[in-house]
Amino acid sequence: MQLRVNQRLELHVAGSSFPVRVEEVGDGRVVLTAPLDGSRPVFPAPGSRVRGRLYQDGGAWEFEGTVEGCARGPVETVCVRLLGPLRQVDRRTVPRRPVTLKAFVARVDHLPPKLTPAEVVDVSEGGCQLEVRNVWPELSVGERLLVTVSGRSPAALAGRVVWVQPRFERGRTFAVGVAWTAEASRLVRRMLDL
Predict the structure, then answer these.
(1) Which CATH class is domain 97-192?
(2) I need a surface site. Which of 31, 49, 130, 158 has the fewest CB within 10 A?
(3) pLDDT (0 to 100) of residue 166
(4) Which of 175, 53, 64, 183 is nearest to 125 (CA)?
(5) What is the reported pLDDT for 58?
(6) Alpha-carbon distance 106 to 24, whole Å?
(7) What is the pLDDT of residue 193?
C-alpha cells in the first residue's frame, strides 16, 4: 500500500482525530489538507508528532510523522515529514464491545441539524459502529455527529464519520463508523467501565 493523491485518511493530532485528504506525496513527505474544527482549520505547530491512518481494501495502514509546516491559501495544508514507511495495522486498536442499543444521530453539519434513528452495534472508547436506515442525504466521511443512546448517560456523544458502507440487503441501510472526540472517549470509557 502506498499513499496517493486524493486518498482520505484520519489524522491524529494531540489526542484528536480529523478526516483529511492527501494533496501531494514525495521525498519522504506528504502534504495533507488542514484538519478542520467545525469550519476553522487546525494548524499543528511545526515539530508536532502526528499519526495518519488510511482505511482501504478491507485493511488499515498507518504512518507517523512530524509537522514541517502549514500553508494558508485556497486549500489550507499541513506538510508532514514521514518517520518511516506506511505499515499495516489492526483496524481496531481498542477493544470493541458488541451491543444492540437504540440511538438517535444528530447531523451537526446540517442546518437545522437532522435527527435520524440508528442502532449502535458495537462501541469502544475510540468510536462505534452504527446502523442507519433510510437516511437522506447519505452520511459522508468527515461529517460531525452527536449520538444519543436511549436510556444511557451521558446524553450525547460527539464524533465524526470515518467510513460508510451500504448494506442494501437490509433495505436502504448503511453501516457507519464513528470516531469519538477526545471528550466523548472519556465519557464512553466511564460509561462502559473500560
Answers:
(1) mainly beta
(2) 49
(3) 81
(4) 183
(5) 56
(6) 34
(7) 55
First to last CA, the chain: 33
Q: CA–CA separation, 192 vs 188, rounded Å? A: 6
The pLDDT of residue 179:
87
Tell me which architecture the domain covering 8-89 has in CATH: Beta Barrel (2.40)
What is the maximum span of the chain, computed from C-alpha positions, in angstroms?
A: 52
Residues of the chain with CATH 2.40.10.220: 8-89, 97-192
Task: In whole angstroms, give the CA distance from residue 82 to residue 61.
Answer: 14
Q: Look up residue 42 and give its amino acid.
A: V
Q: Which residue has the cell 486518498?
A: 7
pTM of the model: 0.54
Spans of the chain, pLDDT less than 50 = 194
Q: Which set of grid coordinates corresponds to residue 188? A: 464512553
Name, in order, each residue with C-beta under 8 angstroms of 93's C-beta and a sequence gap of 6 or more: 126
The residue type of 33 is T
